[in-house]
């Protein structure tokens, strides 16, 4: 347990130039993640935001060492507490997984073993990583289920995954993830499969966790609304690269990358005006061009220049920003108050 | 503007109860899933009616029951003066032309073995609209142009398109038989965020162009509010509130609507940080075993003893200043809650066993954008 | 000049070219090419799949062998060429010039020729039995899957009964029914055993299709019921059935061999069949195991070829592998 709030400068996880290539089976190699770097500090919530195929989930799976080994190439580094996770072998990685770093997934049902009761599944984690005896592990499991807000935990311990609702399953998974008091929790679209009222419950639970235990959280989501309420720092991904990074207030107040503004413009807001049409981004990710020949987003971008199709923009600090705010764009949206570019 | 708008679709007390059967040789009915349990609403010609609710509330089943893709077990559906719920055989088949559907998952709703051309022609042929080959060909191109696709799409297969393009094909297919009403069941929830906006805009465009009436069914309140003129909120098989889109947002009256609205994340940290959320306790009760009285009383933070548990509230007009007669709510205490006379209280979550409700969950399941690969 | 200023200048310079980039339509690009059907894309994948290539080569060789058997066989299958060499010391003459595999037993016929000629009977039995089973299964499966309700219950119970009968007993029964065992009783017996497999498989995938969104869409469109069954449900259900058919071909050949081995095949051994040859080889098993080895080996190789082809076909037709 962290007793005092750690210094701001301390980094828990440093991901540098992560590259993941899928290939094999006679198919051309595909770069799912293409040079992603970010830091996670204790107690911080970092959001990886993007649409399907942007590489956000692959990034997390690569960090956790959960990508199938065959045919895939992972390069770069992910330094956790001084160790590069990407260089660990399976056994060492398994030791880290669950104990130091835990992960929850989109579909709680397929992440649980259908033929083992919830109690035994949670207890297994405790037995494995904290060396508890079975009886103490079961007792501790009940406390954990109680902690994540599962009503009547003693009864639920004996039940099987199919007897729980979607929200309860996700809670059970969170309980398993928390069993070893990990310092880093990776949540991959944890609420996408859930209804909004249940989503609100789960997000609340995650928020409390971060505040109470100082666990760092990597939140992977496509929902900018979820990001707005939860994340300290936001990384917007497109085509396997980070295109914009800033604090949550900065990114929503001064979005500079056309893709970020495009995303914000394409979701109807509950509190927005109804009369105007949504500002949709034309095309789909299928229209992307490879980063090697320019900016992947260029074909869909309303601000694209000639150069966007010939030269990939680097990730650079926004010169107009008052704080840390990096973006990867040749022709960003005009900064608020600045002269239009 | 005092003329009453024409009612295109009049739904009266529609119920869809699925029997729960057990047994190998002789099915024995051991209970019912009350998927849709008394839906009454009217949709006016030219408007967009949004039906919002969470998975398992029966909204999809209701949409299908309107089109007789699911058999209603009670109630009537009158479309343009004709009672659709009693039609049979050929009469039903020919009536289908006027009521079309757009599905949630654009890939699974397009036959993978048919080209776009034959997918679009099929409905026209079924209703004798494709007798003249030349005219049919011209119409196909016109349909594709209306949904923003080039004529080259005609000879391709569904799997050769992106998700958004497939949904456009689904919309073109619905348009192919020149319908009056389109029931869109979660038309954008399986699509990527940036593509959702395209499809929402397209739905609005073709509505104007072809003078369509929409029933949009969705779980996303923001989407429904954006696209709809009127919104109905559904909970466990029936409406709990119905109002003009802006009225509903301005003054949500039903406790469930309030909770639903407060739970929708808003992409603005300033709003997110200061707004008050009503976190509901527990899960949706099983539609196979719905609570007595008000269906929402098990999770309602404003529940009052006795009346809420025993008497099922009906949709009614409330007498609150600034709330028009078009705004109806099924809550005994809407006025008192609005005036602050009744305050929120703690609710103990009731444990729900979802296994009893699997039938209706399958029919109502949410499809979410899935990952492109899985970890073994 | 600091990097920020440089960046800013560059942006200004670039901004002059704004609007030069081509726009794409709202819906995204649709290439002019394409029009590749599911079968087409499956074939593209199969063409590069070594497993399929091996399986298909074996199968093709076997089929060619069966078709051109009379031309390929060095001798005929019924003349007792080597009868003179049969003696008490040497009941089964071994290989010699012109007869590389030697005799097929005390009858002194050429083993190699009989093996080659046997491919034809084996293929006929396998293919006909599978086809008959497939047809029966298709009819029953379509009825059950498309009509549902009582028709479904009745058909499936009949199928369950068929499934519970062992092929051996069936073959005996059919043979008794026709008076004596023959090639045809063999085919009918094997076909009947295959019917429930196909029927269940087809019904299962028809039921999945029936509740699928695209069938629902066709119903909503007002497409006639028969058109829905034969245009949408059946074609989309056939994939697993066809895969099963290739796999069943292998089983049918083995089954035929087993039944012939037990004497329930064609009693007339002038037109050889591998299973029947295997059956006759048992009396010489101690002295000339090669008599069993060759037909058994042929059966294994051919069954293996069909199985490889079926498995790779299954993988290629799996929509999850679609690109």
TrEMBL record, chain A:
An annotated Gene Ontology molecular function: ATP hydrolysis activity
BP-aspect Gene Ontology terms: peptide transport
Family annotation (InterPro entries): AAA+_ATPase, ABC_Ni/Peptide_Import, ABC_transporter-like_ATP-bd, ABC_transporter-like_CS, Oligopep_ABC_C, P-loop_NTPase
Alphabetical keyword list: ATP-binding, Cell membrane, Membrane, Nucleotide-binding, Transport
Main location: membrane
Superkingdom of origin: Bacteria
Subcellular location field: Cell membrane
One Pfam family here: ABC_tran
Keyword match tRNA processing: no
Annotated Gene Ontology cellular component terms: plasma membrane
Region Disordered, annotated ranges: 316-341
Domain ABC transporter: 13-264
UniProt cross-references to Gene3D superfamilies, sorted A to Z: P-loop containing nucleotide triphosphate hydrolases
Membrane-topology annotation of the record: Peripheral membrane protein
Family indicated by similarity: Belongs to the ABC transporter superfamily.
Protein name listed in UniProt: ABC transporter ATP-binding protein
UniProtKB/TrEMBL annotation, chain B:
One BP annotation, GO: transmembrane transport
UniProt cross-references to PROSITE patterns, sorted A to Z: ABC_TRANSPORTER_1, ABC_TRANSPORTER_2
Taxonomic superkingdom: Bacteria
GO molecular function: ATP binding; ATP hydrolysis activity
Domain ABC transporter: residue ranges: 11-261
InterPro entries given in the database record: AAA+_ATPase (IPR003593), ABC_transp_ATP-bind (IPR050319), ABC_transporter-like_ATP-bd (IPR003439), ABC_transporter-like_CS (IPR017871), Oligopep_ABC_C (IPR013563), P-loop_NTPase (IPR027417)
Swiss-Prot/TrEMBL keywords: ATP-binding, Nucleotide-binding, Transport
SUPFAM superfamilies to which the protein is assigned, alphabetical: P-loop containing nucleoside triphosphate hydrolases
NCBIfam families per the UniProt record, alphabetical: oligo_HPY (TIGR01727)
Family recorded in the similarity comment: Belongs to the ABC transporter superfamily.
Name recorded for this polypeptide: ATP-binding cassette domain-containing protein
Species of the source: Flexivirga caeni
């Amino acid at each position: 347990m962290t007793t005092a709030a750690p210094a701001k400068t301390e980094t828990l996880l440093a991901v540098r130039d992560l590259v993941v290539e899928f290939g094999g089976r006679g198919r051309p190699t595909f770069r799912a993640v293409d040079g992603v770097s970010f830091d996670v500090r204790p107690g911080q919530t970092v959001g990886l935001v993007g649409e399907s195929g942007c590489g956000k989930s692959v990034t997390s799976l690569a960090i956790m060492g959960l990508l199938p080994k065959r045919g895939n190439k992972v390069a770069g580094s992910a330094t956790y507490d001084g160790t590069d996770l990407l260089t660990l072998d399976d056994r060492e990685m398994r030791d880290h997984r669950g104990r130091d770093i835990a992960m929850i997934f989109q579909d709680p049902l397929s992440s649980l073993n259908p033929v083992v009761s919830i109690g035994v599944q949670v207890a297994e984690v405790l037995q494995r990583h904290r060396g508890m005896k079975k009886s103490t592990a079961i007792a501790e499991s009940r406390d954990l289920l109680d902690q994540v807000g599962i009503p009547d935990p003693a009864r639920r311990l004996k039940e099987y995954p199919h007897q729980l609702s979607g929200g309860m399953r996700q809670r059970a998974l969170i309980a398993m993830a928390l069993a070893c008091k990990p310092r880093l929790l990776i949540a991959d679209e944890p609420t996408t499969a859930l209804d909004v009222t249940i989503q609100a419950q789960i997000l609340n639970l995650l928020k409390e966790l971060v505040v109470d235990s100082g666990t760092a959280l990597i939140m992977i989501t496509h929902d900018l609304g979820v990001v707005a309420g939860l994340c300290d720092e936001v990384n917007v991904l497109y085509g396997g690269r980070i295109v914009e990074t800033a604090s949550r207030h900065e990114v929503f107040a001064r979005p500079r990358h056309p893709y970020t503004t495009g995303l914000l413009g394409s979701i109807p807001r509950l509190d927005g005006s109804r009369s105007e049409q949504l500002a949709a981004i034309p095309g789909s990710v299928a229209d992307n061009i490879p980063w090697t020949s320019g900016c992947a987003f260029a074909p869909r971008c309303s601000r694209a220049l000639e150069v966007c199709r010939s030269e990939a923009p680097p990730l650079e600090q926004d010169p107009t920003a008052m704080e840390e705010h990096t973006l990867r764009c040749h022709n960003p949206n005009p900064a608020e108050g600045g002269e239009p570019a | 503007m005092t003329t009453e708008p024409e009612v295109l679709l009049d739904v009266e007390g529609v119920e869809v109860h699925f029997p729960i059967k057990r047994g190998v040789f002789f099915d024995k009915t051991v209970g019912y899933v009350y998927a849709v349990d008394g839906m009454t609403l009217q949709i006016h010609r030219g408007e967009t009616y949004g039906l919002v609710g969470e998975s398992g509330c029966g909204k999809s089943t209701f949409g299908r029951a309107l089109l007789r893709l699911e058999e209603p077990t009670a109630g009537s559906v009158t479309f343009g003066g004709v009672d659709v719920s009693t039609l049979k055989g050929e009469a039903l088949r020919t009536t289908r032309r006027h009521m079309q559907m757009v599905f949630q998952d654009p890939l699974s709703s397009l036959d993978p073995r048919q080209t776009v051309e034959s997918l679009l022609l099929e409905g026209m042929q079924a209703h004798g609209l494709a007798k003249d080959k030349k005219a049919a060909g011209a119409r196909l191109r016109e349909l594709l142009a209306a949904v923003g696709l080039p004529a080259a799409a005609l000879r391709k297969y569904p799997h050769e398109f992106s998700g958004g393009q497939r949904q456009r094909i689904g919309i073109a297919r619905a348009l192919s038989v020149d319908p009056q009403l389109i029931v869109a069941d979660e038309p954008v929830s399986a699509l990527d965020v940036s593509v959702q906006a395209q499809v929402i805009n397209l739905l609005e465009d073709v509505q104007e162009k072809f003078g369509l009436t929409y029933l949009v069914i969705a779980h996303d309140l923001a989407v429904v509010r954006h696209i709809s003129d009127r919104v109905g909120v559904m909970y466990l098989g029936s409406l709990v509130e119905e109002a003009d889109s802006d009225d509903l947002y301005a003054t949500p009256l039903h406790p469930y609507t309030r909770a639903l609205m407060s739970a929708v994340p808003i992409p603005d940290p300033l709003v997110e940080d200061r707004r008050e959320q009503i976190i509901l306790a527990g899960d949706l009760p099983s539609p196979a075993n719905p609570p007595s009285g008000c269906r929402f009383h098990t999770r309602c933070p404003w529940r009052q003893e006795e009346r809420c548990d025993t008497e099922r509230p009906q949709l009614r007009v409330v007498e609150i200043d600034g709330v028009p007669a078009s705004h109806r709510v099924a809550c005994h205490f809407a006025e008192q809650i609005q005036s602050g006379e009744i305050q929120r209280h703690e609710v103990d979550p009731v444990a729900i066993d979802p296994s009893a409700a699997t039938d209706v969950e399958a029919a109502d399941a949410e499809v979410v954008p899935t990952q492109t690969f899985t970890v073994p | 000049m600091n990097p920020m200023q440089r960046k800013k200048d560059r942006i200004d310079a670039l901004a002059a070219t704004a609007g030069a980039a081509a726009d794409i339509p709202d819906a995204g690009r649709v290439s002019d090419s394409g029009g590749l059907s599911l079968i087409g894309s499956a074939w593209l994948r199969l063409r590069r799949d070594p497993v399929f290539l091996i399986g298909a080569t074996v199968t093709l060789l076997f089929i060619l062998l069966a078709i051109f058997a009379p031309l390929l066989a060095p001798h005929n299958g019924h003349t007792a060429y080597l009868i003179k060499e049969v003696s008490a010391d040497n009941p089964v003459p071994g290989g010699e010039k012109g007869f590389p595999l030697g005799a097929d037993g005390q009858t002194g016929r050429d083993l190699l020729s009989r093996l080659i000629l046997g491919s034809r009977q084996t293929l006929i039995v396998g293919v006909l039995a599978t086809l008959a089973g497939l047809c029966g299964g298709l009819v029953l499966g379509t009825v059950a899957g498309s009509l549902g309700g009582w028709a479904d219950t009745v058909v499936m119970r009949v199928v369950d009964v068929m499934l519970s009968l062992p092929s051996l007993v069936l073959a005996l029964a059919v043979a008794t029914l026709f008076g004596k065992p023959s090639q045809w009783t063999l085919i009918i017996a094997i076909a009947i055993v295959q019917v429930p497999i196909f029927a269940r498989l087809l019904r299962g995938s028809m039921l999945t299709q029936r509740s699928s969104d695209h069938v629902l869409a066709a119903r909503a469109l007002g497409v006639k019921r028969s058109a829905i069954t034969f245009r949408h449900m059946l074609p989309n259900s056939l994939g697993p059935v066809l895969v099963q058919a290739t796999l069943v071909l292998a089983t049918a050949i083995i089954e035929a061999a087993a039944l012939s081995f037990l004497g329930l095949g064609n009693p007339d051994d002038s037109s050889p069949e591998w299973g029947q040859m295997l059956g006759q080889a048992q009396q010489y098993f101690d002295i000339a195991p090669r008599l069993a080895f060759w037909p058994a080996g042929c059966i294994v190789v051919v069954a293996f070829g069909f199985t490889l082809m079926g498995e790779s076909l299954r993988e290629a037709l799996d929509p999850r592998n679609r690109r």
